[in-house]
Amino acid sequence: MATETETTKLTTLWRPTGPEELELVRRSGWREWPPRLPEQPIFYPVLNEEYAIKIARDWNVPHSGVGYVTRFQVESDFLARYPVRQAGGRDILELWIPAEELGEFNSNIVGLIEVVHEFRPPAGG
């Protein structure tokens, strides 16, 4: 008979991020996202790697000098409360997690947050 842990369904999410936020994730032991700043009422993880790459490369690099794409897994049952938002084209999908719910979101992350891509300005550019 399978235990609950073995049958828990997980959803893989990605998050494009800059160096400051990534440092706070590192300080958490790669286990949670930092609290939002007052001007950040929503936490936006995305549902596909390509979209995360585009944001990290095209937005984070010009604004922060480096952009990272992270990958992590969250319990699917928990995520069911958040509708998938289409933020443009049909593959531009994200979840909107209210800042006040980020602690509960973090407690539903399974495993570690990992960096899967790093982008920097082109050499000589």
Gist of the model:
With 125 residues, the protein is α+β, with helices and mostly antiparallel strands. The chain has 5 helices and 7 strands; from the N terminus they run αβαβαβαβββαβ.
Descriptive account of the structure:
Helix content is 31%, strand content 29%. It has five helices and seven strands; from the N terminus they run αβαβαβαβββαβ. The relative contact order is 0.26. It has 125 residues and is α+β, with helices and mostly antiparallel strands. The strands form three sheets. Strands 1-3-7 form a three-stranded antiparallel β-sheet. Strands 2-6 form a two-stranded antiparallel sheet.
pLDDT averaged over residues:
92
Widest sheet: strand ordering: 1-3-7
Spell the H/E element sequence: HEHEHEHEEEHE
How many whole angstroms does the radius of gyration measure?
Answer: 15 Å
For the biggest sheet, the summary is: 3 strands, antiparallel
Task: Describe the global form.
Answer: globular
* Residue runs with pLDDT of under 50 for 5 or more positions: none
Distance between the termini: 58 Å
> What structural class is derived from the secondary structure elements?
alpha+beta
Total number of helices: 5
As a percent range, the share of helical residues equals 25-40%
What share of residues are in beta strands? 25-35%
Count all strands and give the number. Answer: 7
